[in-house]
Write a structure and sequence with these properties.
Low-confidence stretches: none
CATH topology of the largest domain: UDP N-Acetylglucosamine Acyltransferase, domain 1
Largest sheet: 10 strands, mixed
Structural class: alpha/beta
CATH class of the largest domain: Mainly Beta
Strand order of the largest sheet: 3-6-9-12-15-18-21-24-26-27
Distance between the termini: 51 Å
Length: 256
């Protein structure tokens, strides 16, 4: 199931039922899990681990050296989970020794054409990156987040779980989980009510998240006052506790 024009290094580990298309190049120190489909003209460099049942489309480049001037050839890694769809011209770079030593992608993600994930990023699972969405180095993206087309994310920023970022946004600070954000520069404007309802969150949970967002992000109350008022909701709703912890732990500040 490997096309005769493909170049697969003898040291690469290729699982069962893997398809490799024409003129694809797979280097040494690359592992590809069972049932994956790799299209034509793909380049995968190592050290890289690709999980099972991934579908990688033509002209993608995975596991290449990080675009970091401090990088000096250290053996850092790219790790990709299972069941991802990686469309045309997507690029994932390996990590650096100044970061996590690896770039990590979860499972069940959709990366549309021309997306870029830079060195030392951590991307969760069930995310959607629309066309040309790009992450600079050291960015973290939570589970079920959606990045609109042509979204650009500044290095060291965090994108919270279940958040939604609109088309063409420029993200320079942290986007809270469960929220919607848009603009250049992006600002979190409220709770992602429609998306959360579609994912089965209860109306009570969504209302509690809305109150938490309003008090911690939009109100003029001090953080201490807001947290005192929110304590019953923190105890009652795990999602509220997650939102509060994210905001309190922010290093770059919340895009408010």
């Amino acid at each position: 199931m490997i096309h005769p024009t493909a170049s697969v290094d003898h040291a690469a580990l290729i699982g069962k039922d893997v398809e490799v298309g024409a003129y694809t190049v797979i280097g040494a120190d690359v592992e590809v899990g069972n049932g994956s489909h790799i299209g034509p003209h793909v380049v995968i460099s190592g050290p890289t681990v690709i999980g099972q049942r991934n579908r990688i489309y033509q002209f993608s480049s995975l596991g290449e050296a990080p675009q970091d001037l401090k990088y000096a050839g250290e053996p850092t890694r790219l790790v990709v989970g299972d069941d991802n769809v990686i469309r045309e011209y997507v690029t994932f770079n390996r990590g650096t020794v100044d970061g996590h030593n690896q770039t990590r992608i979860g499972s069940n993600n959709l990366f549309m054409a021309y997306c870029h994930v830079a060195h030392d990023c951590i991307v969760g699972s069930h995310t959607v990156f629309a066309n040309a969405a790009s992450l600079a180095g050291h960015v973290e993206v939570g589970d079920f987040a959606t990045l609109g087309g042509f979204t650009s994310v500044h290095q060291f920023s965090r994108i919270g779980a279940h958040s939604f970022i609109g088309l063409g946004s420029v993200v320079t600070q942290d986007i809270p989980p469960f929220s919607t954000a848009a603009g250049n520069r992006a600002r979190a404007v409220g709770i992602n009510k429609v998306g959360l309802a579609r994912k089965g969150f209860s109306s009570e949970s969504i209302s509690a998240l809305h109150k938490t967002f309003r008090l911690l992000v939009k109100s003029r109350k001090s953080r201490e006052e807001a947290l005192d008022e929110l304590q019953p909701l923190v105890e009652a709703f795990p999602e509220v506790a997650q939102l509060v912890d994210f905001i309190i732990s922010s290093q770059r500040g919340i895009a408010r």
